[in-house]
């Protein structure tokens, strides 16, 4: 049956998820660029306007911003698991809407802080709200797509993370330079309310959506589990090795991605090894390159895994082979911290972020590959919570390491993390068999 006869409305839903994920990442990444603004630095460390910023001030500032970043990630850990529980119980339409509402309010409130303490509070609230994005989006993909298309669909909506960063890199520095850092938070925060209105008026589950044909609905359900709907307690989910494979994979690799998101602008602005430094006027183009390549990686590696399955490979072989390729592509990133050529650094970071997004697109399919639909958001929430805990622990020491040692130790850690993570995943679930979820 051709795609025309089946119908393609499910791909419009993916684009809706792509737009929401883009705005989610715009809101969370504004801080990464305002961090290199001198007026923002003075505000955070309590210096008078125009007062010179000393080397000691910069070291202290980076340590404090590491703590601010950790506050966001601790909240993200809490919010992720709560969001997974909530979405599985009240549905993606309402659950996602609540998430968008909270993160949009917090995004605007970031504009009205005046110290590291108050910034930590608003970033904590932002983390609680933004945590709902991926449990909601992944469950939506599980509801709208058969398994053989999910990694590609996940790759498409996950590409919104990179587009969000690109939009932030191209607009926030300009807004900050011309209108001040507070305006950057207000303008970007308001985007979430626009997305909330679009989501609420557009989204319905496939069986209830007026634009879904019966042929497309049958195709969506063509390889779904023939099990009755039932709620699965978290305590039970934690007894499955499949849950822990997903959770440990997230715990190890999510911190690396968040390190890139938070600290790459500062890396290009202050890393002593580079022969040229970037400021708010010049930082946009490198980030455009890095995250366009990352977008391509998210979509390509999502497609590659799907292609392997279409070739007759098992889900186990297809997912793990793709993730191994991604892990190998990340490995050279340690060179970026020592090269003095900014073009080499941009190329290596582009390769690593692209590979991470491909890794992530395939990781996100684990929950829907290994668990029935009613558990997908909860398992995703557990894994996301573990990823955020890892990110918070990493963030708490990142600012200290950068201020006192530099970036090299952090890039070395990033280099080998994915290969180790894949080995652990393979040890826990050597065949990626679906969890035998019994009725409760």
Structure explained in plain terms:
It is a single chain. 77% of the residues lie in helices and 0% in strands. By secondary structure, the chain is mainly α. The chain has one domain: Growth Hormone, Chain: A. The chain is globular. The model has no long low-confidence stretch (mean pLDDT 87).
Number of domains: 1
Strand % is under 5%
Major β-sheet annotation: none
The whole-number mean of residue pLDDT values reads 87
Strand tally, please? Answer: 0
Q: Output the structural class.
A: mainly alpha
Euclidean distance between termini CA atoms: 38 Å
Superfamily at the CATH H level? MFS general substrate transporter like domains
Number of helices: 17
What order do the SSEs take from the amino end to the carboxyl end, as H and E?
A: HHHHHHHHHHHHHHHHH
Using the 3D structure, state the CATH architecture. Answer: Up-down Bundle
